[in-house]
Specification:
Blueprint (H helix, E strand, L loop, with lengths): L2 E7 L11 H15 L2 E8 L19 H9 L3 E9 L2 E2 L1 H10 L18 E8 L4 H14 L9 E5 L16 H23 L5
Parallel strand pairs: 1-2, 1-3, 3-5, 5-6
Antiparallel strand pairs: 3-4
Helix pairs in contact: 1-5
């Protein structure tokens, strides 16, 4: 079956019409995934949703996590995108990880979490240090709740420390970012295809 990817933009910008460097990085990955016949069906601006605080799959009235959770789990590949703030992943991304904690108790008869057999990669941007630490935070947490992380799973860009240039302000995408995006997409697509045809036994 054709592989599908969903991107989560965890920018702190609530207005989806406001330009985001995370969107720009996700667009680089979208092009790379398209070359591997993986369709990016949607990019979700998470801050525009009402994702309640908590660690369950439904935190009650008005919580928009259940619908987003269903959408996430309907895809083969998750692009988890977000900015670096204070040297680490931002609060929007952390809230999603906390909500996925519920996967630990939502296993099937073989002990597999809902995310088993699905692949996650990262799209990280910032004008400060922290890309490696942010990807380490993401990948450890995502792996804990059942996601599979491929080799070379993070595509990132960081500008000059304490600088004012954002990724979205660049005239062109740096060659190494494009090269890395292709490797991320290729490895993720390969792994997702293997898991689709041969799921984890549990």
């Amino acid at each position: 079956m054709p592989l599908k990817a969903l991107a989560l933009n965890c920018t702190l910008k609530v207005d989806a019409s406001e330009e985001s460097s995370t969107d720009a990085m996700i667009a680089v990955l979208e092009k790379a995934f398209d070359e591997k016949q993986v369709t990016l069906s949607e990019t979700v601006r998470v801050a525009a949703l009402d994702i309640k605080l908590g660690v369950t799959s439904d935190e009650g009235e008005g919580d928009e996590w259940p619908a987003l959770r269903e959408k996430i789990l309907a895809h083969d590949i998750l692009i988890f995108g977000g900015p670096i703030w204070m040297g680490q992943i931002g609060s929007v991304a952390k809230r999603l990880l906390e909500r996925m904690d519920a996967f630990l108790s939502e296993t099937d008869d073989q002990g597999r979490m809902p995310s088993y057999g699905k692949v996650a990669v990262a799209a990280i941007v910032g004008n400060e240090d922290g890309a490696h630490f942010s990807s380490a935070q993401l990948f450890q947490a995502l792996n804990d709740v059942g996601w599979t992380i491929p080799a070379v799973a993070a595509c990132y860009w960081v500008g000059e420390a304490m600088g004012s240039t954002d990724f979205k302000d660049l005239d062109e995408t740096p060659e190494m970012v494009t090269k890395t995006a292709r490797m991320v997409a290729g490895n993720a697509a390969h792994l997702a295809g293997l898991l689709q045809s041969n799921p984890y036994p549990g």
